[in-house]
Amino acid sequence: GNISYHAHYSPHFSPLAFGPEPAYFATAESVRDHLLQRWNDTYLHFHKTDPKQTYYLSMEYLQGRALTNAVGNLGITGAYAEAVKKFGYELEALAGQERDMALGNGGLGRLAACFLDSMATLNLPAWGYGLRYRYGLFKQRIAKEGQEEIAEDWLEKFSPWEIVRHDVVYPVRFFGHVEISPDGSRKSAGGEVLNALAYDVPIPGYKTKNAISLRLWDAKASAEDFNLFQFNDGQYESAAQLHSRAQQICAVLYPGDATEEGKLLRLKQQFFLCSASLQDIIFRFKERKSDRVSGKWSEFPSKVAVQMNDTHPTLAIPELMRLLMDEEGLGWDEAWDVTNKTVAYTNHTVLPEALEKWSQSVMRKLLPRQMEIIEEIDKR
């Protein structure tokens, strides 16, 4: 009944079409209802009990197919197999319609996905944070000439597993300069500000009521950033410049970095993930205890653990320092103490070519305030 409800009332195809693809989407949305119920219950439970929560920051997640995983973990495979038979379909055939979320590449991404699955299964208060790549790394086609690489099309139609959260939006600033106020405090100013918008993918545990979240950030510019005057004057590209820059950030996993532009884009992606996630984590820390005011920051590490998956999210360190000092008014020593106790790091290899290096000029250009903080950490 629920599947047929979604076929009629959450339609993504014209009403008479009920081929394998529409049938898959209707089934997936029906399963998503179960997941959402669990996700909401889990979120509420953690909100009330206020445990120490771990946050996993990773550039990639290789999730695999969600439909078979979800019905298996929820223990409803049989029920759904029966239900889709009534529409004349085999569950396996419908599952074959699913396109993998193109959010990962290899071992590092698969490990991140396994961690989410097992943390959900162990009922741990945990969340994953990542980026919502539109075109993934690439899709492989074998042609006469050999391998061809084309853009991944997992979002060409839409993904039934993600829920957009229009109320969860954070500003992320690139470029600009450092402003020093009369009292000596420093702040980032100018440059370009893009918004990070949250999409949640519920991750169910196996044989448990727990469903945790993989929160993916998408980059957006606002209507204010669209220059109507320029557009009406025929200058279409320059009218929507910030919009096209926003689209670049979450377009591709690991964009080529042979050029300076490529290096800037990769650094933008990494910082975008770190800044949005940390702002969200700080917001949740305050939200769970409304009496948490500036004096309570020493509590932060007993409520928050941030685990960085390899070198990509290491900008979380200077960014957490910046947020604590510039936005929350902490002094250096206190901010450093909090950061030190909150942030941890998983290393995947010690091969020098796998450990990223960024030139100081690129860093100073894109993230002037964070660069100051990095130099200060280095000096101390």
From TrEMBL:
UniProt protein name: Alpha-1,4 glucan phosphorylase
Signal listed as a keyword: no
Entry cofactors: pyridoxal 5'-phosphate
Annotated EC: 2.4.1.1
Record organism: Phleum pratense
GO BP terms, alphabetized: glycogen catabolic process
Job description of the protein: Allosteric enzyme that catalyzes the rate-limiting step in glycogen catabolism, the phosphorolytic cleavage of glycogen to produce glucose-1-phosphate, and plays a central role in maintaining cellular and organismal glucose homeostasis.
Catalytic activity field: [(1->4)-alpha-D-glucosyl](n) + phosphate = [(1->4)-alpha-D-glucosyl](n-1) + alpha-D-glucose 1-phosphate
